[in-house]
UniProtKB/TrEMBL annotation:
Source taxonomy: Bacteria, Pseudomonadati, Pseudomonadota, Alphaproteobacteria, Sphingomonadales
UniProt cross-references to SUPFAM superfamilies, sorted A to Z: Winged helix' DNA-binding domain
One GO BP annotation of this record: response to stress
PANTHER family per record: TRANSCRIPTIONAL REGULATOR, TRANSCRIPTIONAL REGULATOR, MARR FAMILY
Protein name stated in the entry: Transcriptional regulator
Gene Ontology molecular-function annotations: DNA binding; DNA-binding transcription factor activity
Length: 140
C-alpha cells in the first residue's frame, strides 16, 4: 500500500495545505490569528456568554489547549471574560468591540481561503467532499 492510498496520509496532507493557505491569506491581510483562534472567535461570536468548556466542545479541542487559546485572545484584546451570574466560579466569554471588528474583517478572508483550499475541485466535487468529510467524523 502506498501513502497516496492511505486516508490518514491524504488527510494529513490536506491539513498541511489548509494550514498553509489559511496562514498565508491571513498574514497577507495583516492578521496574526491562528485557525484555532479564529474557530474560537467564531464559536464565541455565535454563542455570546459561552464558557471555555463550551468553546472546547464546539471546536473539538481539549480544555487545556482552549484555555491557552482564550488567554491569547484575551491578551490581544479580542475576547473578554466575565463572571457567570448563574455560577460565580465559571467565566463567560464575549467578543470585545475590537474582537467584533477583527472578526468582521477576517471572515471574508477566511471564506476566500476555504475556497482556495479546495481550489482544485469543481463546485459539485466541493459539495460532495464536504458531505463526505462531515460523514467521516465520528459522533461523540
Amino acid at each position: 500500500m502506498q501513502a497516496l492510498d492511505m486516508a490518514g496520509h491524504l488527510i494529513r496532507r490536506l491539513h498541511q495545505h489548509s494550514t498553509q493557505v489559511y496562514t498565508a491569506r491571513t498574514r497577507e491581510a495583516g492578521f496574526d490569528i491562528t485557525s484555532v483562534q479564529f474557530a474560537a472567535l467564531d464559536a464565541i461570536k455565535a454563542n455570546p456568554g459561552i464558557d471555555q468548556a463550551g468553546v472546547a466542545a464546539l471546536i473539538a479541542y481539549d480544555r487545556p489547549t482552549i484555555g491557552e487559546v482564550i488567554n491569547r485572545l484575551v491578551s490581544k484584546g479580542l475576547v473578554e471574560r466575565a463572571i457567570n451570574d448563574a455560577d460565580r466560579r465559571a467565566r463567560v466569554l464575549r467578543l470585545t468591540p475590537l474582537g467584533e471588528e477583527t472578526f468582521a474583517r477576517l471572515l471574508p478572508i477566511v471564506r476566500e481561503a476555504q475556497n482556495a483550499i479546495l481550489g482544485n475541485l469543481a463546485p459539485d466535487e466541493r459539495t460532495a467532499f464536504m458531505a463526505l468529510a462531515r460523514s467521516a467524523i465520528p459522533a461523540e
